[in-house]
Every structure is written in structure tokens, then in C-alpha cells.
Amino acid sequence: MTTRLFGEPVQRREDPRLLTGQGRYLDDLGRDALAAAFVRSPHAHARIRDIDVAPALDVPGLVAIYTWEDLPERVGRALPLLIPHPALTHGRTAYPLARDVVRHVGEPVVMVVASDRYAAEDACALIEVDYEPLKPVVGLEEAVQGAALVHEDVPGNVGAHLVQEVAAADGRGAGEVIEAAPHTLSFRLDIERSASMPLEGRGVYARWDGRDLRVYSSTQTSTSVRMAVAATLGLPLPHVEVIAPDVGGGFGVKIVHPWPEEILVPWAAMTLGREVKWAEDRREHFISSAHERAQIQHVRVGFDDDGRVLGLDVTIRHDHGAYTPYGIIVPIVTSTQLLGPYKIGAYRVAFTSVYTNTVQVTPYRGAGRPQAVFCMERTMDKIARHLGKDRTEVRAVNFIGPEEFPYDQHMTFQDGRPLIYDSGNYPEMLRMIKELIGWDEHERRPGRGIGIGCYVEGTGVGPYEGGHVQVTSDGRVHVSTGLTSQGQGHETVFAQIAATELGVPIERVSVVTGDTRRFGYAVGTFASRAAVMSGNAIALACRKVREKALRIAADALEADPADLAIDDGMVHVAGAPSASIPLSTVAVLANPLRYAFDDEAAKATQFSATASPDRPPVAEGEEPGLEGRDYYSPVRSTFASGMHAAIVETDPDTAEIKVVRYAVVHDCGRLINPMIVEGQIHGGVAQGIGGALYERMVYDSHGQLVNASFMDFLMPYATEIPHVETAHLETPSPLNPLGIKGAGEAGVIPVSAVIASAVEDAEGIDVDRMPISPSELFELRELRELRAAME
Amino acid sequence: MKPPPFAYHAPRDVGAALRTLAQVRGKVLAGGQSLIPLMNMRLAAPEHLVDINRIGSLSAIDATPAGVRVGALVRHSDAEHAGAHPLLTRALKLVAHPAIRNRGTVVGSLVHADPAAELPAVLAVLDGTVRLARWDGRAVEREVPAREFFVGPLESAVEPGELAVSAFFPALAPRTGTAFEEVARRHGDYALAGVCAVVTVDGDARVTAARVACVGVGPVPVVVDVTGACGGVDVPGASGGADVTGAFGEVDMTGASGSAAGGWAEAARAVQEETEPESDVHASAAYRRHLVGVLAERALRNAAREGAAARGA
Amino acid sequence: MEHEITLVVNGATRRVNVPARRLLSDCLRHDLGLTGTHVGCEHGVCGCCTVLLDGRPVRSCLTFAVTVDGQEITTVEGLAREGAPPRGLRSAGSAATGATGEGGGTERPSRPHDVEEVKPALSPVQRAFAECHGLQCGFCTPGFLCTVTAFLRDNPAPSDDEIVEGISGNLCRCTGYQNIVKAVHRAAELLAEET
Questions:
Q1: Residue C101 forms contact with B (CB below 8 Å)
Q2: ipTM, 2 decimals?
Q3: What are φ and ψ of residue C120, in 5° steps?
Q4: Which residues belong to any copy of the FAD-binding PCMH-type domain (chain B) (predicted)?
Q5: Mean pLDDT over all residues of chain C?
Q6: Do A27 and C29 touch (CB under 8 A)?
Q7: Which residues of B fall within a CB distance of 8 Å from C3?
Q8: Is A490 exposed, middle or buried (0-12, 13-18, 19+ CB in 10 A)?
Q9: Residue A611, pLDDT score
Q10: What is the pLDDT along chain B (313 residues), one digit of tens a residue?
Q11: Is any Cβ of chain B less than 8 angstroms from the Cβ of A656?
């Protein structure tokens, strides 16, 4: 059967064009467009005294130069704060071009438009900006001291402060429970900055024909960019279209919108009456997009003799950089997802989110979860070490049991909904990961360590996504959904869903994502939500189409719709394949026509219609055409889970760290395409290993990002990434028709925790900071020897 | 990230190149693998670029019993595949990645004089030379020894108007082995620290000469003659090849006499003392100092073993 | 000042006027319309812009177009050329008119595959990447394909370690490389079957 494709490792339909250079990424479009470039602040914190553009005016090819003062009022307003939250008492956003003060190196100050990017950069180099340097605030500790301020009107640099508490069953708070616990530990954890770093930077290309504006953006949310552009430029929504073309990776950074350039490039295109394009270069991406991860966590935990956590108190300092356009999603996710697969007696988590004169912090794959899991899993390892127990045993006594779902963690998740886990089987997963890595057989010796990390990930957050499905009279099925794609294979998995639901060969199904001309309502691609949200919406839309098809076919075949089935594009009476009608013909019958423009249309003209003369050609409550639209809007998120384990070797002399084995057990409910899910896991683990051993954003005390290049920001090559062994557990989600959960972020989430666990095991040293380099491991060893010598 | 404009010169022979350089004092473009990134970032903005890629005579590799002379247009990969000098070949495999080596040149790496790069250390440990030419009514050449050629970080002895036309890597003495040991954050990155060693042994596999050059731990390649520390040391396991176990190369201690182990360690300490490592985003100075000791010992052992294995040859 | 240069791109002779500072990557993408070669860092680290220069992989972002005047270049658009119609010639020719580019103002769907299944001819290396899911967003893929095509020509039956070394100059942010390594093995098999 060609049409039961759900769950099959179907080859990707995106690949032929991407393999032959026929993909269309942002900078592949608009060959004749003018090019934009920006003068960006070289200072972390400074007041702009004066901007002199005169030296640039003679640059050949120069078309226009804009500063903030040149922008009309509505274009020059501060960018929106996308996700307000009551705890974000001092939210601040940037202006599209800096107004008076710059607050991080890389903030855009002047926009230049020229015949090509070379000329635009020539002009940028000649524009003279006179800055009065101000004291920069760099690093969490300097920020919380509050001696210097990033924003004059934000005391103590505190943007947000939020406390969430869950009392123990007997009503006691975490502090009280910890005090009374048989054992307590307290410690500090540090996680440094990293970034999404897709290989394609951001980019915007706009064209204006005097009435309609079309914007292409390398974005994770074209529908929302469209609304933001229309609102800011004062255009009626139907006159603005936004298209996400092929996007060369996102990993979170491209969900932020509108970026300054998403406003400025369309505005310049309208102002100049010319096509304008801006393709971000790598240096711009480092200093003017977004970073993530940096947190300091102070942990206090109380536990019993079995390692059962009775109370946990976590205080988080979160560095959100210079602005908060995306609100405080990241520390909220850290606070709530910290609980993982565990039942924690009493829990208190407080975070303070502070401003620094650095690039803003917005979600990067995992979005606060890697930090959360690092915290909880370090806690579990420390409890085990304190009690002299096996690390997996301590985790097991804290697991939520498979019979306890749905399990209410009594907190509020990032979507404002209760944190209730839908399904999972953690003990079974632990058994699987131990077997896969050979936990019990692992030979312990110095320089070789084994580590483990467990997580639960809320995926598929709302509010909704939609799908539109149309069967045309040639038998083709056209599927569209509003959210975008950055490599996840949506064209394939959504086609699998549609083919399966409609009973058509996948070759006849085509999928369009991220094009507001095709579907205008959507949220975006983030939070491992695309398959859950759009997948289910498309399935529901297909079911509407199917129902209509069966109704029409039943009329034509004089059968009961309940007796009909669709296979291979043919509607037939179950058990009587000869009584059948192709779906293409059903599509013809669904649309009564006046004009016979082709042979198919001739069959559908009003004069040859077979319908009863007593009924209108389009019955009441019906619409012409064989198409359907539906939306999926869940009450709350689904919760995927996973456990990773690794074996590392550390060189006794050079302190190099090598991951020799890496194993993953993963549960994202029902798998639509196991090949694609595995690919997502591989890539996530590789990013996680980057974050654990290689990648960090290093600012000096002046707020200069000193490693803003691929030479010094060490994304791993193939030589740094181990083979990843995977196994799947499928506990379907009861919350959605397809029983699926998200998979996009899973791979990255526990990796730092796992590597820390393994290095700690190999070295017998506490590993409380990530990432860890050979130089840092060497220093930890020196410290250990120093301590030993002092004792 | 687009390069600034420049005047472009594409001479067809060395004489024309030298005359152009004498007139415009431009920057020489060979492989461009170090220069063009700097230009793309607008950290370098030469007014004139003299492209020597059309000067076929600079592509020669001349191997003689005395050593190998490598022309200014010889790409890393060409020199690597020519296999004209064992230490050069060994070091070239550590330079960046294949696609960079297909374009980058050996002489260009020397002139760039990055103290973290492998090839300057190779030239330095071998006591090689660079041949520089300039136009003074006619082509005038001078031969600069490595110890004078590397002046400071990213600074060589090439004067304005001069063209480095070739480099000479002296052949190894009989019964001589080499090694290049380094630790880089990622495969192909500039090393955090690295040591190349050249060790000569006598007919009884006793060390008679030992010299190392270190990368990444000083403003220029740090050359240390450690014959004094390990001269006379017996080389164990003279069957050739480094002993490698586990995920990391580990030196096999079995069979090493106490004096031998002491000799290597003493030599490594002597090397450490000569270095002036600095801290940066990738490693602390203390770690680099530690690392160079570890690597010096490994490199010396492996070079000695290779030299001992070559006795019969 | 502009320089007239001649490049033999995917088998087709192309004459183009470029300023001396024109990077080969920009010349291919913007002057010749061959946008399959991608630019990821413009400082030679990521490998997205890798093309074959006289058959050898090089970084087109670290090469001035004027320097390689007269030389042969193969881009991702030309990899399937052997044994297939002269695609390089055709695609290059049409792109040079600007008629197919979206920016040319011509109305056409942003996703050609939406209208009709595009089934371009694929080389064994390209087929292997599809079979083994060796790509996700596809941005780094052209650089990998060029690198691997040359690598397998020099080493038709590589080991795992040799493959990892062979692709070690190309960054991929999506796949974790595992399926790329698998694809290189598979491509070696496909190439062996063909000969």
C-alpha cells in the first residue's frame, strides 16, 4: 500500500532542489536589488554625540544613508516587546536605529543603501560617528551589583524578578523542608553564553510596487513578521505579504521579530521605490542578532537516605543582554522545566533577569532547558555521590511513575497554562538507556567516565496552527500551513500525514510553509511545536476534505459514505474495488462550473451536472471545491522526554576530553518519520556537545565580543562529534489526534549535564561550570592537587 | 564582510613582480588564505595587491640531497603530496583543512609568521632559510635564516618592496627522526601549543642531537636545542612508530631506562623554561606552559624512536 | 577598474567583467547567477562556499575571481553534469539573463516544487546524501557535495576516519555529521557500482 506513510522513513521531498543548488535562500533572491549595510556601534555603551555622513557621500554606487532622525515617527518607534509578562517590570527594547544611546557592540546606528554590498560597506567605513563612551556593564555579577546601569531608568539593572513556589504535600515550603531534611547540599552552577549560529544569517528582501509590499525574510515566523511590518509601516494587512524562502537554519534566533532590518529594509524599499535587500554577514550575526544560555544558579537541596528529594531551592541569575524583545521566556522555561521527570517534594525557584551591555538574549534551541537540566542533573549526581549510591538509582527513586499521568507539577508553564505532563514512562526509559550504554557493565577507571542526564521537554505549545488542504481536478493535493521551515523536513512529514489521511500517493501531495499568500494565520516554528501543531491541523483539515469527498463520491456511486474507503487516490466501496471513482473526479464534481475551459471542466459545468434540479448546485452549508481548512489548538503542551548517556576519556597529560560513546533514548510519542526524528536528535546532540566542550561567547571588560568569528567561536566539525546511538520509546500523547510530541530541541537539552556527569566520573572532580575546555580541566586538576596538598 | 578596493597587478614573471613591488610597495597575493580573511573583515586594506599566481616559475619544488627548495607558489597540498621532506609533510597535515591547503602556500605561511602556525616552526627547527628578492636596477636576492626571518607575531623580515621567492628546508642528517605533536581545540585549528622535534641518534641508538621548535607559546617559534639534556639517552623500543593506546596517544614507558625518562623530562623542562605563553579565550598561559612540556616530551620520544628505527636505512 | 575575465564554469565558458576585489563566491552567485554556492562566514572556516577549482576544493570566499581567470570551476549546479545533459550550460545561461531570478521582477511561485515535482538529475554523491538524510536545512550542503566529490575521486573506498578527516573543513549546524559520514560511504558504493 503506497498511502500508509505515517511512521515510515520516507526520503525527503526537499532534497532534490537543495542538492542541486536549486534551493532559494534569502540572498539567492533579488539579484537586482539594492544592498543595505549598517554602521554598527563599536562601543558596548556610549552616547551618540554626532553622526557625520558627508565623507561617505562620494562613494560610487551610494543611494541613501539613514539615521534614526531620518525615520518617520512610526518607523522610528522602539521595537515591540513581543511577550510581556507581569514579572517583567522593566522591559526595554531597542530602536530600529540607535537613538541617542547604544547599549551593545553591534547595535545598528546608520543604514546605508547602495548598488551592491561592496559599495554599501565602503560608505559605512567612511561615516563618522562621534561617541561619548559610557561605563559598560558586562557579566552577571557586575550587572547585579548595579553600580553602573545599562538603562538609566532601570535600577539595579533588574528587568524581571519572578518567584514560583510549590509547597510539599504537608504544606511546608521548600526552605523549611530543606532545613529539616536528613541531608542537605548547596552549591553554585555556571553556564556560559552560546548562540544558535545557523550557517545562513538573517536576511530581508523587500519590493514595493506602489500598492503592495512583498517581503522575504529568513525568519521562523512569516505571519507575525507580516503583521508587525503592516502595523509599523501603516499598511493595510492585505497589501503586505511575507514569505520565508528556504531558510538555512534557525535554532531559535530567527523567531525574534521584527528585527530592525525587517522594518528598515521594507521601509527603504518603499521610500526609494527600489528593491532593497540585506543579507547579514557573519560578523553582524555575532554582534547584532541574539545569544543565549548564560546563567548562574545557586542551589540548595534537602533529601532523605534513599536520595529522594524533599525540597529544592534554586536561585537563578539570568543575563538577558541589553534588551528584552522576547520577554523572559528563557528563565521561565528554566524555572519550570527544571523539575524534569521527577517528583520534587517542595520547590522554590526564583530568578532575576538582568541587563548587561551585551547582545540580547532570546531562545536558542532548548530555550532555557539545557540550563534547567544541568541544574537538576548535577543535583542528582551530587546526591548520589553524597550518599555513595549509583547515580541512576537516585534518579529512579525520584521518578514520576508511569501510572501517575497526567501528572500535575503545580506550576505555570511558559504558555501560561498549568504544567501538567500528559504521558511518559521514565523507569522503562532508564532501563533502556542503561542497557544501550552498558551502564552496569561499565569498567570504572581514572580517565574514563560515564555520565547520564534525563529531561522532560514541554513541546507543541499553543496557541494554534492551521492547515489548508485542497484537492484539485488533476488529483493533486496542495497542503499549506503558516509556520515556517528551517530544515526540519516539514514538506515531507506533512505530506506523509496528508497522504495517509487522504489515501493518496505522496507524490501527488505538495506542501507549502511560511508563505502568507497561502496561509495567513500561524504562530511560528519554535518550541518543538511544528509537527504537533501543524501536523495535527493538517490531519484535521484532511479529515474534513475526506468527509466531503466521501459524501460526494457516495452520491456518485449511490453508496453509503460509511461503506467507502480511499486508497491510492481512488474512492471505492469497501470490498468492491470496481465500484470506484478517482479523487480527481470527486474534485471536479465538487465544483459546479459554467465554463468548460478543459475536458475536466466540461464534466463539471452546470449543464452536465448530475445533481437534482430541485437543489441549488452548491448546497446550503457547502462551498465549491474539494478543500478544507482546520486549526489545532491544544489545551496545553505535550511533554516529550529523553535520557542520554555518554562515556568520555580524559587525557591524563593534556587534559583533552573526548566523547567516545554517546547514547540517546528518546520519547516523542508516535514517530511520523523516524529518519527525520533521528536526524533532529543527531544535530541536537552535536549542538549540545558544542555547548558542553567548545562554544562560548567571550566578552572582555569593555563589552567587546573577543571571539566573534568562526576561527574562535568553536562550532564542532565532524572530527569533534561522536557517533550517536539512538533508541525510541513511543508513549503516544493523549492530547492530540495523531498522538505525537515535539522532537526538534530534544537532542541538545541534556548534553552539558551528561558530559559534566561523565567528566566528573572520570576525574573525581566537581564539574559545575559549562562549557569545559582542556585548559579548564587542567585548572580543576591543579586546584584539586593544591587542596590535597593543603590537607 | 567585503574587501575594500585595491589596485590590482598581475605580473607574469618574477622580474615584473619585483619592479611592480619596487614601484607601488604593494602587498603580495599568493594563496590569500590568511590575507583575504583579513581583507574581508577590513582589518587589512592594501592599496596595491601584486598577484603572483601567474608566475609559473614560482611553483617549483626542487629536492636535492642538501634539502628541498619550495617556490613561493607551491600550495600546501602540492608540497604535502610531493613528500619532499618528512617533517614538512608531517606538519602540512596539521595545517587547517584540505580546501585551505589546496590554495594556501608554504612560503605564504612563513611570511605570514603566525607564531601559532606549524610551518614557521618547521623552518626554524631545521634552520632553514627564506630567499627574498627585490628590484634595484636588477633582481637582488638575499637568503635569510629562520632565526632572523621571524621577527615577531605576524611580522617577518620581508621588507617593503621585497618578494619571498622560495624557502629552503635542509635535509635531515642520517639516523634522524622527526615528530610534530600539537593540541588544538578542534581538528585543523591553530594549536594551543605544539612542538616539533628533530632527534639524531648514533649507531647504538643513543641520542646525539635533539632540537625542538614550539608553536603558540611565544611571539615567534621557540627553538630550543636540548642535546645537552637528552644527549646520550638510550632510545627504547627502536622498532619504529609511536605507541598509541586508547583515545589518546600515550607514550609507552616500558623498556625506558630511568636515565632515559629523566633525560626526556629534563629536556621538556628546559623547553618549558624558554617559552613565554600567553592567555587567550582558548587556554590559560599556565595550561600552555604545562602542555608544551607534555608535547615536548612526546615529540622528542617519538622523533628519537623514528631516528633509531632509521638506523639501518 | 573592471577586469574582463573568462571562467569555465560547469563546462561553459563565461566571460564576465569584475572589479579586482570581487570574491569568487560573489562572482558565481551574483554575476553568473549560480546561487547554489553559499556564503556562510566569508572568512574561510565554514566551507559552505567550497567549489572545485581545476578539480580541487577551494574556498570561493577566499579567492578573488580575477586571480582564477582562465581556470575551470565546478559548482554544485555542475556536479550532476557528467552523464546528463549539459546542465551547467543551461542553468548558467538562463540565470545570466536574470529572467528566472525572483528579483528580476518576474512573477513566479517561490517554491517551484509546489507547482510540479522537480526531479533534477543527481550525481551519486547527491543521491547518497538524499538516501542517507545527509542534509537538513541544506545551506552547507553544496560545500559538502563539492568536497566529497573530490574526496571520493582521490579515495574511492575510504574508512570512517578518512571520511571524517575529509569533511573536517566543512561546518554543518543541523545534522551532527553522522548521516553525512553515512552518505559518503553510500556514495562510494554508488560510484563503485557505476564503474
A1: no
A2: 0.96
A3: -70, 155
A4: 1-174
A5: 85
A6: yes
A7: 8
A8: buried
A9: 60
A10: 999 999 999 999 999 999 999 999 899 999 999 999 999 999 999 999 999 999 999 999 999 999 999 999 999 999 999 998 999 999 999 999 999 999 999 999 999 999 999 999 999 999 999 999 999 999 999 999 999 999 999 999 999 999 999 999 999 999 999 999 999 999 999 999 999 999 999 988 899 999 999 999 999 999 999 999 988 888 865 544 444 344 444 444 333 444 556 689 999 999 999 999 999 999 999 999 999 999 999 999 999 999 999 876 5
A11: yes
Chain B nearest C-alpha distance from A260 (Å): 19
Q: What is the CA radius of gyration of chain A?
A: 28
Q: According to the model, what pLDDT value does residue A157 have?
A: 98
A199, closest residue in chain C (CA to CA): C40
CB contact at 8 A, A326 and A82: yes
State the CATH class of domain C122-194.
Answer: mainly alpha
- Nearest chain B Cα to C3, which residue? B8
Please indicate, yes or no, whether residues B214 and B101 belong to a single structural domain of this protein.
no
What's the CATH number where B254 sits? 3.30.390.50
B100/C44 touch (CB, cutoff 8 Å), yes or no: yes
C-alpha neighbours within 13 Å on the C-beta side of residue A660: 18
* C66 contacts chain B (CB < 8 A): yes
The confidence score (pLDDT) of residue A758 equals 98
- A694 vs B3, B42, B186: nearest CB: B186
- What is the nearest CA distance from A728 to chain B, expressed in angstroms? 29
* pTM for the whole structure: 0.94
Contact A22/C170, CB-based, under 8 Å?
A: no
DSSP A752-788: HHHHHHHHHHHH-S---EES--HHHHHHHHHHHHHHH
Residue A522 and residue A431 share a domain: no
Residues of B in contact with C43 (CB under 8 A): 1, 37, 40-41
Q: Which residue has the higher pLDDT, A600 or C111?
A: A600
Q: Where does a domain end: B106, B141, B171?
A: B171
C2-78+81-97 CATH, one of 2.60.120.10, 3.50.50.60, 3.30.300.30, 3.10.20.30:
3.10.20.30
Contacts of A205 in chain C (CB under 8 A): 103
Question: A118 to chain B: nearest residue by CA?
Answer: B2
pLDDT of residue B110: 98
State the SS3 of C40-90.
Answer: CCCCCCCCCCEEEECCEEEEHHHCEHHHHCCCEEECHHHCCCCCCCCHHHH
Query: Is residue A622's pLDDT more than 50?
Result: yes
**A388 & A495 share domain:** no
Q: Given this model, what pLDDT does residue A632 score?
A: 96
Number of domains observed in the structure of chain A? 3
Average pLDDT of span A51-56: 98
Per-residue confidence (pLDDT) for residue A613, from 0 to 100: 75
Average pLDDT, chain A: 95
Does A701 score more than 70 pLDDT?
yes
List CB contacts (< 8 A) between A117 and chain B: 2
Distance of alpha carbon A347 from alpha carbon A174, whole angstroms: 5
CA of A564: how far to CAs of A64, A541, A569, B117, B284, in Å?
65, 19, 13, 73, 73
Give the distance from residue A649's alpha carbon to the nearest chain B alpha carbon, in angstroms.
Answer: 7
Average pLDDT for residues A586-601, to the nearest whole number? Answer: 86
Are B8 and C43 within 8 A, CB to CB?
no
Instruction: Say yes or no for a CB contact (<8 Å) between A651 and B248.
Output: yes
Alpha-carbon gap, residue A693 to A711, rounded angstroms: 16
B222-225: strand order across its sheet: B176-184, B191-201, B207-215, B222-225
A210: left (phi over 0), alpha (psi -120 to 50) or beta: left
Boundary of a domain, candidates A288, A305, A320: A288
Please tell me if residue A739 touches chain B, with a CB cutoff of 8 Å.
no
